[in-house]
């Protein structure tokens, strides 16, 4: 997986005391590293996708869109310290944009362009909200974005073109013949539409994560973290606080837009009920579970969100519970996991592993 | 030098000295009904160490925050290299060539020492968002150059070996040096030091004094400080504030002998903080306490 943790940025040799010797290679090999991780990730995804059934494929598609949105959110909350409770609303913007662009037979635009358009539209909305949010702090940003999460599904109802309560159906375009051929050539099996969407989702996730990882490792990420850690010090170091915050917000909402686009294609319908406050909170819990500020953590969190309920339900039925009871088990286990992580590993899963690793090497 | 002992609104370079690098002229600041600064003027000449001293609540930190753009003066002007700075914002300081340290250090806790210092080097960055996003070689080379620059600065202050540690794990004097490195890495022409001796032991303070003197071959320093010993040993010129006014200025010896200074500053040091002007003093202290967290 193309994943980077905050700690991953630090040279492992760093722990050694003393002069440490010249380290000229400082971050010079960032892109090749991220790209090779990306290729490995795609290979792994292909293997998993080809060895699992249609249901698992659709789950993988959900994990992909949750992962994209969580990746963006972890950048905003973990790196820049802005708490957004409204990322579900930005996903809605991306999803509705996608649904509208794909409406038409054949759709007016090729699929990659639709994804880019959904990202761009959400980015613009994010810029407007971000400029307003940059004037706010801590809980006030959370409040403002919370309002957005509540308002957007409500606003959607007022536009007939957006399908009201029923929402819009999303028409998936025919899988291009060359894609079908290529898939058959590589995997030796037919590419069904579910799998096609899952592949699109994971390709989008990998691209997003590579770009986010690039940003996190460089000066932009450093600027964001500086603003998070100490505003006054960041400002006198020459950082324009507002600009840094808006940039983080815009990058984060662009991710949410792309996630919404993938979600629209995976779910095949965009309705207000799909973008309730629960979605925003779910994303946030994924990010906290995995470990704030870490893309690996965002991915782990979205995997937990996607697979844990089904796993628990399955275990429940195996243990002799009725289907209804087994289904009720999932939220309980999820809640318990959340409580456990916060009690035992407040830094999230990756954060805790990172701290253990550091302690083992004797670094504070 | 025979500078005036009272503040004047219009100050020019006196004694035919070098033109001032940074001037504050006739600055007044009120917080509510309290006058924190009234008609304060001072000049920092290139490669000079200017000390600003005064009893608690004299308005030192307010003056400092005016110089940084955290507090907008009600009247008066700031001049940088002879040009007026209008609407100075703190984030512009670095690009102008003014470095500053904070009383509370303000290190970025969750970033390594090296990264802390690299943030201060942003003035030297040559690439922007796009090359970072796409991980272009340009951005990586630029970052490597910033890292090298930051390491050199850390090495210059003798703390390079801590480059990859988190600041929270380091002893206070080391953290102080890291904060100083972050201000120095941008190669400022003027360095504003806010109580740099706070929390240091005697020998550490002597080292700090040497360090500050050593900076004057590259930059001017304006120092706000409590410790008379340090101020007297490193400053070329001293401006003394009391209740928001300049009550004396001149070389260390001049200032030391000035009766107004002895009465205001040393009297307070020796005789405790009690005084008839307590009400006003408290108000000014409130102003001084604010570290400039203005948005």
Written description of the protein model:
The complex is a heterodimer of chains A (364) and B (295). By secondary structure, chain A is mainly α. Chain A has a domain at 29-275. Chain A has helices at 30-51, 54-79, 87-101, 111-133, 138-156, 177-187, 193-217, 219-229, 231-236, 241-267, 277-290, 295-318, 323-344, 348-360, and strands at residues 168-169, 269-270. In chain A, strands 1-2 form a two-stranded antiparallel sheet. By secondary structure, chain B is α/β, with parallel strands linked by helices. Chain B has 2 domains: 1-97 and 190-290, Rossmann fold; 105-187, Rossmann fold (3-Layer(aba) Sandwich), CATH 3.40.50.300. Chain B has helices at residues 60-68, 93-96, 113-120, 129-133, 137-156, 172-184, 202-215, 228-234, 252-257, 259-271, 278-289; strands at residues 22-31, 34-44, 49-53, 75-80, 83-84, 98-100, 190-194, 220-224, 237-242, 245-250. Chain B has a 6-stranded mixed beta sheet with strand order 6-7-8-3-9-10, with helices on both faces. Chain B is globular and about 60 Å long. At the A-B interface, helix 1, helix 7, helix 8 and helix 9 of A face helix 2, helix 3, helix 4 and helix 5 of B.
């Amino acid at each position: 997986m193309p994943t980077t943790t905050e700690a991953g940025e630090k040279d492992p040799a760093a722990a050694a005391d003393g002069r440490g010797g010249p380290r000229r290679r400082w971050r010079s090999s960032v892109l090749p590293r991220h790209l090779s991780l990306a290729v490995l990730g795609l290979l792994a995804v292909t293997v998993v996708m080809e060895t699992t059934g249609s249901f698992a494929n659709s789950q993988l598609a959900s994990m992909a869109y949750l992962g994209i949105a969580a990746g963006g959110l972890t950048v905003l909350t973990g790196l820049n310290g802005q708490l957004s409770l409204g990322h579900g609303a930005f996903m809605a913007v991306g999803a509705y944009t996608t649904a509208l662009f794909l409406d038409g037979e054949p759709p007016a635009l090729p699929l990659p362009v639709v994804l880019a358009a959904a990202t761009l539209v959400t980015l613009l909305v994010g810029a407007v909200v971000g400029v307003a949010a940059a004037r706010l702090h801590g809980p006030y940003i959370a409040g403002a974005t919370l309002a957005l999460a509540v308002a957007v599904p409500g606003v959607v109802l007022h536009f007939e073109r957006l399908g009201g309560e029923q929402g819009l159906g999303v028409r998936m375009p025919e899988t291009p013949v060359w894609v079908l051929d290529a898939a058959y050539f590589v995997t030796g099996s037919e590419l069904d539409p579910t799998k096609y969407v899952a592949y699109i989702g994971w390709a989008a996730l990998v691209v997003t994560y590579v770009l986010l990882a690039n940003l996190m490792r460089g000066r932009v990420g450093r600027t964001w973290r500086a603003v998070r850690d100490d505003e006054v010090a960041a400002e006198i170091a020459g950082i324009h606080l507002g600009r840094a915050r808006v940039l983080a917000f815009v990058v984060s909402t662009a991710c949410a837009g792309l996630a919404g686009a993938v979600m629209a294609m995976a779910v095949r319908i965009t309705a207000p009920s799909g973008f309730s406050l629960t979605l925003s909170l779910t994303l946030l819990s994924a990010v906290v579970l995995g470990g704030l500020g870490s893309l690996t953590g965002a991915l782990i969190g979205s995997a937990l969100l996607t697979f844990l309920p089904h796993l628990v339900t399955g275990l429940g039925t195996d243990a002799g519970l009725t289907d209804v009871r087994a289904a009720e088990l999932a939220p309980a286990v999820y809640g318990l996991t959340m409580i456990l992580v916060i009690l035992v590993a407040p830094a999230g899963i990756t954060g805790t592993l990172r701290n253990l690793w550091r302690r083992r090497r004797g670094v504070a | 030098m025979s500078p005036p002992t009272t503040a004047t609104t219009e100050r020019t370079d006196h004694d035919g000295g070098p033109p001032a690098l940074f001037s504050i002229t006739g600055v007044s600041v009120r917080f509510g009904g309290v006058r924190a600064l009234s008609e304060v003027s001072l000049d920092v000449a290139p490669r000079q160490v200017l000390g600003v001293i005064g009893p608690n609540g004299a308005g030192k930190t307010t003056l400092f925050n005016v110089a940084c753009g955290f507090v907008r003066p009600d009247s008066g002007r700031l001049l940088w290299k002879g040009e007026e700075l209008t609407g100075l914002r703190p984030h512009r300081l670095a690009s102008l060539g003014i470095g500053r340290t904070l009383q509370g250090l303000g290190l970025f806790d969750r970033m390594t020492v090296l990264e802390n210092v690299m943030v201060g080097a942003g003035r030297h960055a040559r690439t922007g968002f796009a090359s970072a996003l796409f991980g272009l070689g340009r951005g990586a080379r630029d970052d490597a150059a910033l890292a090298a620059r930051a390491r050199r600065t850390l090495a210059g202050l003798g703390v390079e070996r801590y480059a990859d540690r988190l600041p929270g794990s380091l002893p206070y004097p080391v953290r102080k040096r890291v904060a100083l490195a972050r201000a120095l890495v941008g190669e400022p022409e003027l360095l504003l030091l806010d109580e740099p001796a706070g929390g240091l032991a005697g020998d550490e303070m002597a080292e700090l004094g040497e360090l500050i003197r050593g900076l004057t071959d590259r930059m001017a320093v304006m120092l706000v400080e409590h410790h008379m010993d340090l101020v007297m040993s490193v400053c070329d010129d001293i401006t003394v504030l009391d209740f928001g006014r300049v009550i004396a200025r001149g070389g260390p010896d001049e200032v030391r002998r000035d009766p107004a200074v002895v009465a205001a500053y040393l009297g307070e040091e020796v005789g405790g903080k009690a005084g008839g002007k307590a009400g006003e003093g408290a108000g000014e202290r409130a102003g001084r306490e604010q570290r400039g967290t203005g948005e």
